[in-house]
């Protein structure tokens, strides 16, 4: 036998036993964004490398070391998208969706980052995200947070995640803070690791994000970002907090929350869970009022978030919160040649009569015992049994596989109403 080819490290298959939960998650997401009047945008998976360099920032983890970048046959530098915001803004600018308009958009799909694979961290992973444009006030910040809170509720996760918020202020106030932070870090340079020392000169706010306990220990006495933000950003933040409280959303102000991407200003937020170890952030977002202009459009306020679907699914699996219905309602068991020929058409007419009914037709012959084993394995609630005799009389045998009810026989005409009644909760 020749050697089997394996999937790329950190890139997962979604197997049939997992895809039901994924579909359930995706359907809830689609229903939820619809209920807020958001529209879907789909962008290519590959973009010009410059797009991500210019938006996410040259000295961020993503651009420095996580991107899948390659030259295509024309010699252009292309990158598999590591996130969705940059592409959304690029498409919005390119198609004139952003200037002088309001947009509420969402997307869902695979993203790529070359990270060390571990639980909740993969090289191909999936994000659902929302991006809104043209709305400067904290009202829309609250709306996108409410949308996420509604999702937690649908998923049964409301008491498993908590919200952290902060304000990064304006780029001017952040520059002032940066100087103060660097001055403080310089005094403690001996306790910084190499990464933090490097960041001190390239992207000092990211030091606040360090996972190193020694660096962490320095931070309680470091200057506080919220003491430096400008008056307008302060008002924006105060109103955001007030509106969140009015809406009954609990939150914690975390003045060290900075986020790893350069384009954020003012509001930033994360939804975090304690149930996934180090990979606890399931959703992260914020305001990025400068990005549209930075990518060549007219200045346009914007706010959005991205949710990591693998972490969400892991959380749902570990808590065993979701009970999915079986994939099949009715199993059609066919005994003998004539029944087989008849069965395929009968299954079609049932699907016509009861849209939403999930019928699996037995294929491959075999005796009743073997077919009933298959019927049981399919998860169906009902098996319909058809042999030569049933075809002659235009009837079917009805066996209840999950209930203690006697087997019956009904005419073909009565079958749709019998199935409709028995399976009404699914149809
Ligand atoms: P982290 O600090 O965990 O690396 P991040 O700040 O890089 O996260 P974002 O770029 O804000 O993450 O992406 C938003 C969300 O996407 C994260 O909160 C997480 O749920 C998910 N995510 C990010 N990177 C990965 C990955 N490599 N594998 C799985 N999910 C990821
Ligand atoms: Mg990361």
UniProtKB/TrEMBL annotation:
EC assignment: 6.1.1.21
Alphabetical list of HAMAP family matching this protein: His_tRNA_synth
Q: Which gene encodes it?
A: hisS
UniProt-listed Gene3D superfamilies: Anticodon-binding domain, Bira Bifunctional Protein, Domain 2
Q: What is its main location?
A: cytoplasm
Entry GO MF terms = ligase activity
Q: Per its UniProt entry, which superkingdom is the organism in?
A: Bacteria
Organism (species) = Bowmanella denitrificans
Q: Where is the Aminoacyl-transfer RNA synthetases class-II family profile domain?
A: 1-325
Which Pfam families does UniProt cross-reference here?
HGTP_anticodon (PF03129), tRNA-synt_His (PF13393)
User: Hey, which family's this protein in?
Assistant: Belongs to the class-II aminoacyl-tRNA synthetase family.
Q: Mind telling me what this protein is named?
A: Histidine--tRNA ligase
The subunit field of the Swiss-Prot or TrEMBL record says: Homodimer.
- Enzymatic reactions: tRNA(His) + L-histidine + ATP = L-histidyl-tRNA(His) + AMP + diphosphate + H(+)
- Keyword terms of this UniProt record: Aminoacyl-tRNA synthetase, ATP-binding, Cytoplasm, Ligase, Nucleotide-binding, Protein biosynthesis
